[in-house]
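Researcher: For the annotation table, I need structure tokens for AA1-like domain-containing protein. Please keep the output clean. Sequence:
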Amino acid sequence: MYYSTILAASLASIAAAAPAKRESYAADLPGTFEISNFVFGCTVGCNYNFDLTVSGSAENHPAVAPTYVKCSGDLESTDYVQCGDVSETQRLYAYIEKDTNELHLQYEVQNYNTGAIYRYYGEEIVYAATSEDADKQEECFEVKENRATGVL
């Protein structure tokens, strides 16, 4: 009897200590990823290079603009690659999915006071300059944030 009470109390305290994860979707997201100088092509391998910033400000979502960070990589990456630090508490990440040519973008913000980390995401299909759809790709374009997560 006492064992089950102690076990239940212990599990409850562990659950209370676990970080809370929250998700948001496009309707309440303030930001837009702004891409410029976009270059994506395939010769021996496929590589991309572009400048990235984020506009739109809200609580736990400071705008990055007018600062741009250089993003570059290849299609061998299957997860986010850090483009660069915007500040001590802000980072931008990107990668292009090999099978779909979908550009994945992530803006990470750490609340300096609480340590909470917020991540904002956006995706867009892009076209290589060496593909038959090359004329569909713009050098400058925007991608709206479509979801966010926060770990408190």
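Researcher: And a one-line annotation?
Model: The domain at 18-151 is CATH 2.40.350 (AOC barrel-like).
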